[in-house]
Amino acid sequence: AIKALEKAQEQLESENNLLRGVVVINGEAIEGTVVSEKGVEELDFSDKGNTKFIAEKDGVKKEYSYSAKEIEAFSIGTRNFVKKNFAPCAKGKVEPAMHILEEIYTSDKIVLYKYYPSAGALSDAKMEFAFKKASETDPVSLYDTRFLILKKGLATYFTDCADLKAMCEQGEITNDQEGLLKAARIYAELCE
After folding, report:
1. Full-prediction pTM beyond 0.85?
2. Helix crossing, 150-157 with 162-169: angle to 10°?
3. Which of 43 and 140 is assigned the larger pLDDT?
4. Residue 123, CA distances (Å) to 48, 91, 120, 188 in order
5. 54-70 pLDDT per residue, tens
6. Which of these, 13, 52, 118, 141, has the minimum number of CB atoms within 10 Å of its CB?
7. CA-CA distances (angstroms) from residue 91 to 87, 113, 123, 125, 186?
8. Which positions ≥6 away from 32 have C-beta within 8 Å?
9. Taking the CA of residue 169 as centre, how many other CA atoms within 13 Å lie in the half-sphere pointing to its CB?
10. How far apart are CA 37 and CA 19, in angstroms?
11. For 78-92, b where at least 16 C-beta lie within 10 A, e where not — what string?
């Protein structure tokens, strides 16, 4: 029986990346192992996805699905994820619901999130970015209608920071992680 267990563990390690992780359920942090398929570009947190969480409690191993309602937040290595009320807009505006968002940049003034669809690999839902200023209740998708003309949308969004607004109008901020991270840092660190 021990040989079979060792062989199963060996197979798990050869086919997957294993990282330390934490899930938060009802305010309680549970430590465990994140199992993610090797060779995949994007994480898929759906029930049939490529990323799972395994924890051992009282000698019993349990697998958790990241899309489970009771999971409020989680971390994978140094990356932090939260569930927030969010309306993904890449395929047109939908009603806000609880979705998994990675915190790319966090400050007192603004947070940059990356949205991971949990509809599964066969879904045509797209990963997208969102900003949330301290004054806003929910994150705002950068695929929202107001950002379809990106330069104008970002300039309007950042009207409370003249330098950043000017950079947006000039097209200096791109709709990718690097460009949006730059905008968030400027807003948080240089704007009054």
Report:
1. no
2. 180
3. 140
4. 12, 11, 6, 35
5. 898 778 889 888 888 88
6. 13
7. 11, 18, 11, 7, 29
8. 20, 21, 22, 23, 53, 54, 55, 56, 64
9. 10
10. 11
11. eeebbbbebbbbbee
